[in-house]
Structure formats: C-alpha cells, structure tokens
C-alpha cells in the first residue's frame, strides 16, 4: 500500500515547520527544510534539534534520508512539488500580524514555476491568502495552486496532534490543489475539511480565540469564587460534565501564554478593529488574561505586607510544562512585577530557555527545587511541572523563611498543604488567611 511520495519544501524551521517536516517525512515524502538562521540550519545538519518537542528528535533521525536542511531559498525549492510556508508572524506595534517573513518567502518563489502548490501553515490574518494569490499571479505563477492549511498542534504534543488530528482544514479555490494537500496527509487518520481560503484562515483564528475565551471566562469565575467562598475546581469539574461544554481549557490559573493565544487573539482583535468592528468580547478576554499574573503579585503583596526585600521563588518559568518555550510566559510578567516591587526573585525550571529581554538577568536560577526554596519568603507555582506535584513539600516547609505558597495552577492539594503548615493561596479556591468571607 505504497502512497505516492511528494517533494515538499518547508520554509521555517520553528516549532510548526520542524514538526510538519518531520511528520511529512514520516509519511514517506521527501522534505527540504529551509531557514534563514545559519545556526539553526547548522544544528539540524549536525543531527541535533534546536527546540525541545517530545518525539521530534527521534522522528527526524528515523527519517533522515528523506530530510535535508538548507539556508538557500532557491536550492530549497529547486525540485519541490509543494512549498509550505511555516514562518513566524509576530505582532507589529499595532497588534497586526507582521507578514514580512511570509512575503520574503513568496519573493523567493518567483522562479519556481514548476511548483504545483504554495501552502500557508503560518497563522495569518483572514484575507492574506487572497493577497498571496494575487502576488503569485503577478509573479507569473498563476498556474501554481494556493492553499491555506492551518495548524492546530499544541506544543509538547505536536507530533501526536499532527499525526492524529481532530480535523485537517484545507482552504483552496480549486479541487486539484485541495486534493494535492489532502494527499500529502494520506496515512493520517483524521477528517479532511475543505473550504474556501478565507474561511480556513478564520477557523484558526476563531478556534484559538474561543479557547482563550474559555480560559479567561474560567479565570473570571475563579475570581468570583475567591470572593464568595466557592471552589473553582468543583465548579469547573461539574460544568465540564455537561457534554455541550466539555471539560477542556477550564483550568483557572495565571492565564494563557505561549506563541499562539496571546498573539493570535490580539491579531484577531486588530483585524476586527481594522474593519471598523470592535470585538468587545475578545478585548475583555485579553484584558482578563493580562490581569491574571498581576493579580497574583498583588495577592502575594497583601499576604506578605510588602514585597520589598522579600525573596520570592518562581517554580516554573515556561508558559506551560513539557516545553522549553518562554514566549509570553506569565513568569516573565510576575518576575518583572516582583522586581519592580523590590523583591529578590529566584527561579527553578527543568527546561526553560530564557531568551534575551526576559527579566532573568537579575533573577537567580537554581537547578533544584529545594535550593530554590531555601530561606524564601514565598514561592509561586507558575508552571505545573509534574516535579512540583512529586516534590517532598513536608521537607520544604522548614526550609522556607515563611512557608507561603501561591499555587498559580491549582496543582497542589489544598488540605494537605495547609496541614503541612503552609499558608496556601491558589486561584479560585477559598484558602489561606486572606479569605475572610
Ligand atoms: C495552542 C493551541 O492549543 C493550538 O491548537 C494552537 O495551534 C497553538 O496554540 P499551545 O500554545 O502550544 O497551543 O498551548 P496550549 O496547551 O493550548 O496552552 C496555551 C496556554 O493556555 C498555556 O499558557 C496554558 O497554561 C494555558 N491554559 C490552557 C490555561 O491557562 N488553562 C487551561 O485550561 C488550558
């Protein structure tokens, strides 16, 4: 049951491009991955992986005879049937998506008349595909098909999400291109949903916005729970049993971070504003999210009286567990706020790779949880790493100067922590002496 192999060029060796490239190679296609960062290409050519994503290194190694990496855009598409655009689209000052990297790739394709299709996987504002289609036509590539094939993979489980998707969305104007993109996914067990290009672009933005809405809604209910004495974990558990709502994306906490939700929700709001439509619901979702880490610092300040001169340990730095990604991580806001209040900030994380600009220069990073907690006045559970559930909290209680824990992800057991002698604060659960209702 051999499937026809295609020659696919992936532009962008980031989380999305590397995972797509590895998975297409696993499905039997020949894949060239092109990136503009020499160091990234060098690392990949040496057999290493420049990012952490479970299973990715093994998959790249297993399919290495069908994978190549290059800096050269012309060389990358020389023999390709399909060019996949997986470059990043960071926000501009106005909140719109910066599409300059996408356009740079389109420029590279100018001489690639042999291509059968150009496919965009990067998250782009609705309407981008139509503009790219016009640009391709003007560049003499009118015969090359165009498709939008948005990505729904989450970091930390991207390989599984790609190989076992809930759906494969393909936006195209002609059946031939849609069929070609669908054929690239042969071997994957998941429904293919073909639609027009603008709708496919909207699916991605709207899906992320709805998930972000669910999180912010839960965080608002959590704030009400704190004020009224209800417990958000009981509330969401029972709400989640309603099959119309489902249990997912209802964990109250320090808010969403990462490379997608913050950026995509702002981009959708900007898109709406640009069309003269104020997307008020999404504006509130974004505001609630921005408030979450600040509320945590404020509650800690109330608990400790002052943050000036206090040592606060951040347990977890990445935006979620299972990744080394620090993009839009709530930890960066919490650290910056604590430093601004005059606190000493320490941190622990098993995997974080702090990039330039993060406030870690002034924060001490410790390799072990015990060391990080030594003589601390308080600790904040920022990322729900499993190590934090498993660590011996009974030993830490005397290690800390004052055993104050702010569990920003509600991962620890409230009664156990209180029984151990901690002043235990969490999100949306009446806990600790601060609750006097
Ligand atoms: C997300 C989408 O899930 C994925 O479909 C899209 O392609 C890219 O964006 P990702 O950013 O990798 O993926 O992480 P995800 O697991 O969805 O979590 C996003 C953020 O929301 C994290 O900061 C997480 O801590 C937070 N979150 C998630 C909550 O605060 N509460 C929840 O209930 C769920």
Q: Give the uncertain stretches in residue-range form.
A: 432-437
Tell me the total number of β-strands: 14
Number of helices: 17
Per CATH, which architecture of the largest domain?
A: 3-Layer(aba) Sandwich
* Mean pLDDT score: 93
Write a short abstract of this structure.
Helix content is 42%, strand content 14%. It has 17 helices and 14 strands.
Describe the structure.
By secondary structure, the protein is of the alpha/beta class. The chain folds into two domains: 7-195, Rossmann fold; 261-426, 3-Layer(aba) Sandwich (Rossmann fold), CATH 3.40.50. The chain is built from 17 helices and 14 strands. Helix 9 (197-228) packs parallel to helix 12 (280-304). The longest helix has 32 residues, at 197-228. It starts with 6 loop residues before the first strand and ends in an 11-residue tail after the last strand. 46% of the residues are buried. Bound molecules: uridine-5'-diphosphate-xylopyranose. Residues 151-155, 208, 215, 249-251, 253, 255-261, 319-320 line the site of uridine-5'-diphosphate-xylopyranose.
What is the secondary structure topology, with strand pairs?
Blueprint: E1 7-11, H1 15-26, E2 30-34, H2 38-45, H3 56-62, E3 67-70, H4 73-77, E4 82-85, H5 100-108, E5 117-120, H6 128-138, E6 145-148, H7 158-163, E7 168-172, H8 175-184, E8 192-195, H9 197-228, H10 232-240, H11 261-274, H12 280-304, E9 311-315, H13 330-340, E10 344-348, E11 364-365, H14 369-373, E12 378-381, H15 386-390, H16 393-399, E13 404-407, H17 414-419, E14 423-426
Parallel strand pairs: 1-2, 1-4, 2-3, 4-5, 5-6, 7-8, 9-10, 9-12, 10-11, 12-13, 13-14
Antiparallel strand pairs: 6-7
Helix pairs in contact: 1-3, 9-11, 9-12, 11-12, 12-13
The chain binds uridine-5'-diphosphate-xylopyranose (UDX).
Uridine-5'-diphosphate-xylopyranose is lined by residues 151-155, 208, 215, 249-251, 253, 255-261, 319-320.
